[in-house]
Amino acid sequence: MHDFLKRLGIKEVNSGVFSDKWLEGKGGEVTSYSPANGEAIAKVTLATKEEYEEVMAAAQESFKKWRTVPAPIRGQVVRELGEVLRAHKDDLGRLVTLEMGKIHQEGLGEVQEIIDIIDYAVGLSRQLYGFTMHSERPGHRMYDQYHPLGVVGVITAFNFPAAVFGWNAMIAAVCGDSVVWKPSLKTPLVAVAMQNLFAPVLAKHGFPGLFTLCTGEDLVIGETLVNDHRIPLVSATGSVRMGKIVGAKVAGRLGRSILELGGNNAIILTPSADLNIAIPGIVFGAVGTAGQRCTTTRRLICHESLVDQVVEKLVNAYGQVRIGDPLDADTLMGPLIDEDAVQQMQAALEKVRQEGGEVLCGGERVDRPGFYVTPAIAKAKNEFDIVQNETFAPILYVIPYSNLDEAIGYQNGVPQGLSSAIFTNEMREGETFLSHVGSDCGIANVNIGTSGAEIGGAFGGEKETGGGRESGSDSWKAYMRRQTNTINYSSELPLAQGITFEF
């Protein structure tokens, strides 16, 4: 076993269940495989419903105490978690790469995202503000304030096995909430390692159940968590299909949900665009993380006058993408997560051909152990069924357009609405794209790609992407309950709206 795994507390068989201590995990076990070579890394035991109850009891008990801690003090505890991550950044980044398959620089970047959100959360802990309003009644003052919400459930996907938990948990923690984490069964070791890192810090401060871990099957732990009335907020990242199930079940019990679901992100390339920055932006957006980001560039809406020139440049650039072991510093694209992902990519390219499109390059399986493919470029139409649906793989559809209105129509003409971008040097085109008649996505960029959001802004999308927001801006409000307060400091009792009530 790698030395860095040992430093993260990973053993050959690991518990995937933590309440205020590690539980046995009596619900069976799952083996984590590296997509880089298909070899087993280690095993993780899964929770039963009975163990879920132990986890929830610990989370509830921690919440009752944690919510009474002043928010700036909560921020100081969270700050210590950031120091632990800084000390173990390389090891945890390597584990993300080993278990998920993204290249090492992206693995390190994922851990850095958590460190950054922790820094943001520490500052936020002194800025959980409300507003004061003027009352219509003399001698009255009105204001609103935010209180801790409760136990927050976090369901994460394989493609960002560390960062998405960090986005949610660190903000929730400074807001006064405790967290129950259900990680993807494709990347459970990252969750175990993070719990190993965080648990001693939280226990030292007297809150061992603040962050709990409940690794388990969807039909056992996932269903239980989503239907649990003791969890007022569920943050779930995954497919649209999963999100529709989670959203309906949580809404059915009048709970709240933050849904970060599929993306079908497009870049519009205009005649005035600077291709020196556009081409690298397109390639990274389409190829980075082997096309397994929710913000991956999947459609290039290219002006018809540029198509031949741009396709030539892209095919040339794709030929230079170094595919291989993601832990090798020279690698630019690692493997897909598993065999199913490879098959889905190849099925999607076959569907392109069947619908009348043309595969220009890529899509072949690389002859080596693991789940490697070459990134693909295909000419297509926006209305193709396969283009309307997200394939979690490095496929870029090139779609010609003739005018900006048509391009924006294509951009918005899909069910998903996460990230979008335009490359242009025309101010009017950029401003139109950002206006109410422009992109309908939650993220809209000018002269940068669709991928690589900063933590300071709210992250999330519209339509089938789910409408949730995480990370920066005022996303913290989702993790708190809002309360309006009115104080009467007069000796009278006037009623609102001028109502009189005498007896």
From TrEMBL:
Q: Where is the active site?
A: 260
Q: Which GO terms describe its molecular function?
A: aldehyde dehydrogenase (NAD+) activity
Q: What class of enzyme is it?
A: oxidoreductase
Pfam families, from UniProt?
Aldedh
Keyword match NAD = yes
Q: Sorted alphabetically, which CDD domains does this protein's record hold?
A: ALDH_F7_AASADH (cd07130)
Instruction: Extract the SUPFAM superfamilies matched here.
Output: ALDH-like (SSF53720)
Top-level taxon of origin: Bacteria
Q: What is its EC number?
A: 1.2.1.3
Keywords, sorted A to Z: NAD, Oxidoreductase
Domain named Aldehyde dehydrogenase is located at: 22-484
UniProt-listed InterPro entries: Ald_DH/histidinol_DH, Ald_DH_C, Ald_DH_CS_GLU, Ald_DH_N, Aldehyde_DH_dom, ALDH7A1-like
Say if the entry is tagged with keyword Transmembrane helix: no
Q: How does it assemble?
A: Homotetramer.
- Family classification: Belongs to the aldehyde dehydrogenase family.
What PANTHER family does this protein's entry cite?
ALPHA-AMINOADIPIC SEMIALDEHYDE DEHYDROGENASE
Q: State the protein's name.
A: aldehyde dehydrogenase (NAD(+))
Q: Which organism is it from?
A: Acanthopleuribacter pedis
